[in-house]
Design goal:
It is built from five helices and four strands, in the order ααβαβαβαβ. It is globular and about 45 Å long. By secondary structure, the protein is an alpha/beta fold.
């Protein structure tokens, strides 16, 4: 297995989008499908997916949709922040809303308590908060 840096991943994404013409939402969809294909779906039925509002969060929402379509129990939590979500995050968010998936927003400590309870009941937790675009301030 080869390992690369976040900068190289960013360059590959940009090249795919700008030079090849692959829409970013297609890259997100492919990432979600690859994630789901690597999950042992015989052993895992209950999922908690915690999402930020960036493209990594959009990946998480797409994963949630695919798992839901496979009749898996999925709980989605979105970390509330002041900024709006990215374009592709919003697309996947609206798809889940149209599918009537229950999406919970984490705003305060009570929400964290509910998240903790959900995690304890789950078979698998997916972290879709930060990706390669994380900027430390």
């Amino acid at each position: 297995m080869r390992i690369t840096s976040s900068e190289n991943f960013r360059k590959m994404d940009n090249y795919s989008i700008e030079n090849i013409g692959i829409p970013s939402i297609v890259l997100m969809e492919n990432a979600a499908l690859k994630i789901v294909s690597n999950i042992d779906l015989q052993l895992n039925n209950r999922f908690v997916i915690v999402c930020g509002k960036g493209n990594n969060g959009g990946d998480g929402l797409a994963v949630a949709r695919h798992l839901h379509c496979l009749n898996k129990e999925v709980e989605v939590f979105i970390i509330e922040k002041s900024k709006d979500g990215t374009k592709d995050f919003k697309i996947n968010y609206n798809i889940l809303k149209n599918m009537n998936l229950n999406i919970k927003t984490i705003r305060d400590y009570e929400d964290l308590d509910y998240l903790r309870e959900s995690i304890m009941k789950s078979d698998m937790v997916l972290d879709a908060i930060f990706g390669i675009g994380l900027v430390e301030k």
